[in-house]
């Protein structure tokens, strides 16, 4: 349960964020004025050197002043543009996906975000997921007060509920304090410098103009460096404040300490996000060595305070020692949910073409579109042969017109796929061939989770297969190409990853992105990923 922050605490934090925003804007304006003034003066000097006549008036001061004024005007436009950054644009840069309310792990996250909304009175807070096995969390605020809190798939797996609640309290504190908005603006301003550098570096210019381009690149790099240092200084300060306010919200400093220790020591992983977004996360995704050191240089270049310093403050509030945190983080996280395959239901043999075929369940029989009210069937384990219409369950389905023609069919067997819950995620399974259909993004969830306990024989088989696996895609393709059961588009043979070298079928339609795993492939992928992670 997250608790609201005192009104005076929020007021002070927001006032501090506003002061930092004004300071950042003022310094940015000075940086733009100085850089553009120097650029203009450099260009004037280079061009003037081409003129051999000494009678040319010296316009250096005028050029510098006009260039500086142009820089100031541009900085104002950049600030206006940064303040108007849309939330969708920010989340797209971080490559997030919406949380799935049907997923067991995502449900816990959604409930905690709802608690954060109630505690901060900020509605709505958009819950999003980064499909990565690494562990991290972030918060951002876009134009119009649109907010979002995001976590990685790995964070949902490796933290218990108390630790996850503490992390979300930390991120909610950023939103309540108003500094998520500040960092979003800082990110947008840093991107503007990079645009200038990229534009100057890609131009094919020769002669004196090339020298001007080099000067522009150097000065814009200096400006980007100075602006980044300012943003990092603000980021380090706000992380300590968010730790404090997050503890006030969750009332559990030890849980936040344990979460930070878990992420920093073993589960951070590598998350591919733009560098300028690093300060938006609870820990730097890039795992910079400067973040864990102390001194003048780390203080200038680090996006976050050292984890040791943050733990020291949290443990002081918790009146605990570091060894308590270390011992607690060794305790395995309880599984949120185990595998819950749905009951298969009664199976039937079907008489077709002079022979009995099956057995199949109702959901498998009906999509085949081969059964009619007069078709003879025999329930599995029974000697009674009746027409399909006479059987209570099948008769109701047939007379109601529920032929299930819209059901998704197995691309191998062409029978209906059954739904089941696997490691908290909803997937489709073929009871005949053992294949699995995963919607877009589900594979990333499953490889991060550890709910399933595999048999020793399966582990040995997966390891033996990997040692003899080939990275030749054509040699690995044991089955013909298939059609996507979801969108009916073609599916292409691809390797799941270089690590596993397991061949799967992926829908070529990027909007669909479904994956088909033949029998044993999903299990092999999970075993190999888990074994590599140790």
What does this structure look like?
This protein is of the alpha+beta class. The chain folds into three domains: 336 residues, no CATH class; 53 residues; 116 residues, no CATH class. The chain contains 18 helices and 14 strands. The strands form three sheets. A six-stranded antiparallel sheet has the order 9-10-11-14-13-12.
In short:
With 534 residues, this protein is α+β, with helices and mostly antiparallel strands.
List the helices and strands and how they pair.
Blueprint: H1 7-48, H2 60-83, H3 87-94, E1 97-98, H4 104-120, E2 125-130, E3 137-141, E4 147-152, H5 153-158, H6 161-177, H7 179-202, H8 208-250, H9 253-267, H10 296-301, H11 307-318, H12 322-329, E5 347-352, E6 355-361, H13 362-365, E7 376-379, E8 386-387, H14 392-399, E9 418-422, E10 425-429, E11 436-438, H15 442-448, H16 456-468, H17 473-476, E12 491-495, E13 503-507, E14 515-517, H18 521-533
Parallel strand pairs: 2-4
Antiparallel strand pairs: 1-2, 3-4, 5-6, 5-7, 7-8, 9-10, 10-11, 11-14, 12-13, 13-14
Helix pairs in contact: 1-2, 1-8, 2-7, 4-6, 6-8, 6-9, 7-8, 9-11, 9-12, 16-18
Question: Features of this protein?
Answer:
534 residues, alpha+beta, six-stranded antiparallel sheet, four-stranded mixed sheet, elongated
What is the spatial order of strands in the main beta sheet?
A: 9-10-11-14-13-12
Number of structural domains? 3
The strand count comes to 14
Tell me which oligomeric state these chains represent: single chain
Largest sheet: 6 strands, antiparallel
Rg of Cα set: 30 Å
Helix percent band: 40-55%
Low-confidence stretches: 339-343, 401-406
Provide the β-strand percentage band.
Answer: 5-15%
- The N- and C-terminal alpha carbons lie at a distance of 34 Å
Number of helices: 18
Structural class: alpha+beta
Average pLDDT works out at 81
